[in-house]
Write a structure and sequence with these properties.
The protein is elongated. The protein has about 450 residues and is an alpha+beta fold. It contains 14 helices and 18 strands. Strands 3, 4, 5, 6, 7, 8, 9, 10 and 11 form a nine-stranded mixed β-sheet that branches. The chain has a five-stranded antiparallel β-sheet with strand order 2-15-16-17-18. Strands 1-12 form a two-stranded antiparallel ribbon.
Length: about 450
């Protein structure tokens, strides 16, 4: 694969647009489907700008209005990558034909338009680099730089696939109630969608995404950064209630979560959402902090995931490990959790309270204020052992000093079918024990 990618990069560097790219980026060519099909192909020496403009103006209305096939998730990128491969193999004629079809089906896909322009420009001149424009202004230069970055990231996703049979290390254990999961690798601008099957997590699809203008590590309101951490989808917003800017819909996540608030982070309104109708995808660093996905890809996600039970891990770089390795990394925590469960089942407050951190806080309640809540739970259990039903464990390690576990489970006394759904945040520092710094009821 690396040699194939190298061929693609080399070929792209030799066959990229000049004035045609400028026209595309400026929005002067709304539907270039007839360019390559015209019999009066531009003669050598005729300017690309004049030829492309003449072809676009003369394009028959019937061609511009041709019906398009149904739009499905991942299709546009898969076709773009296939075109890259054809370019790398020196099959420029087939690449041009496929690029023409791609831009007809996805006229708002800027990167696809740019590659199509590249292939057209190759017929009349050699250019030096992607978007090699001698007279571009600062705005055009920024647009071209963003498209180059997007192209690089899509190619990176082509050559750096997750190893077969591996999962992100954060997924220690997911209960059957979490039917799907999402993991985002911001270094690769990639979202991975999983199905939680009887045999473990299965990767269903992965998609290109955009993040904050200022990058990642959100810490304050308005910092234009995307947060890192373990989150859950909190709702599915009806697209009819949203501005067109948000595209096919939006899935808010619970930023700031209790760990974020413990660290003093502020802000909110972090969503996974789509793009405006005239924009297939956005630049890699383009949002106010949300994660933005192409509308066809988002529609797949909207129709797949469930609210409240779907975890969303956002990491700078995902570590892919065998499932058994992820579970083994959580073994020390499982021992601590079992100790907490046993102490609560026994109603032993003296043994139970040391599992809570001295600076515990639950919706403004200190550890001292939380103690009566724990006592009431024990009284309601009436001496029956407590089971942890549908246990999920997600591990987060932001640095080398602190490890966090986000735990969700049904707290069900023995002999009773249901009980409250709890979410706990545990933390340990090097050489320290696991302790709960947040506990709450979410259902």
């Amino acid at each position: 694969m690396p040699s194939s990618v190298s061929r693609i990069r080399t070929a792209l560097a030799r066959t990229l647009p000049a004035a045609v790219a400028c026209l595309l980026l400026a929005g002067l060519l709304p539907q270039p489907t007839a360019w390559a099909a015209r019999e009066d192909a531009p003669r050598r020496g005729q300017s690309a700008r004049a030829a492309a403009t003449t072809a676009a103006v003369a394009a028959p209305a019937a061609v511009r209005a041709a019906p398009r096939p149904p739009i499905v998730d991942g299709d546009a990128e898969a076709r773009l990558i296939a075109i890259y491969r054809l370019i790398g193999d020196g099959e420029s004629a087939r690449a041009l034909a496929d690029a023409e079809k791609l831009t007809a089906d996805y006229p708002n896909f800027q990167l696809g338009q740019l590659v199509y322009g590249d292939l057209l420009a190759q017929r009349i001149r050699i250019v030096r680099a992607l978007g090699d424009l001698p007279d571009h202004d600062a705005a055009q230069a920024a647009s071209l730089a963003a498209l180059r970055h997007e192209s690089d990231l899509r190619l990176k996703a082509l050559r750096e696939r997750p190893p077969a049979g591996t999962v992100p290390a954060q997924f220690v254990q997911l209960s059957a109630s979490s039917r799907h999961a999402i993991a985002i690798d911001t270094s690769r601008a990639r979202l991975y969608l999983f199905e939680n099957t009887d045999g473990g997590l299965k990767l269903l699809a992965d998609y290109y995404i955009s993040v904050g203008k200022s990058g990642i590590e959100k810490s304050a309101e308005g910092d234009m950064r995307t947060p890192l951490g373990v989150y859950y989808i909190t709702s599915n917003l009806d697209p009819r209630t949203l501005k067109p800017f948000y595209g096919a819909g939006a899935l808010p996540i619970n930023y700031p979560n209790p760990y974020d608030m413990r660290l003093g982070k502020t802000g909110g309104g972090i969503w996974l959402h789509g793009t405006p109708a005239d924009q297939f995808s956005r630049a890699p660093l383009a949002t106010d902090g949300c994660v933005v996905i192409a509308n066809p890809d988002l529609r797949r996600i909207l129709g797949t995931v469930a609210v409240r039970s779907t975890p969303v891990v956002i990491a700078e770089r995902l570590l892919w490990v065998p499932p058994q390795a992820a579970r083994a990394a959580g073994k020390s925590f499982e021992d601590a959790f079992e100790g907490w469960r046993a102490a609560k089942s026994a109603g032993d407050m003296a043994a139970l309270m040391p599992f809570y951190a001295p600076d515990f806080n639950s919706y403004g309640k200190s550890l001292e204020a939380w103690r009566p809540v724990v006592q009431q739970d024990i009284v309601r259990a009436q001496g029956r052992p407590v089971r942890a039903k549908d246990l999920s464990m997600l591990r987060w390690q932001h640095d080398n000093t602190t490890e966090t576990m986000v735990v969700t489970f049904g707290e069900v006394p023995e002999g009773i079918r249901t009980g409250p759904v709890r979410r706990q945040y545990w933390m340990r520092t090097p050489h320290g024990p696991w302790q709960i710094f947040f506990e709450g009821t979410i259902g």
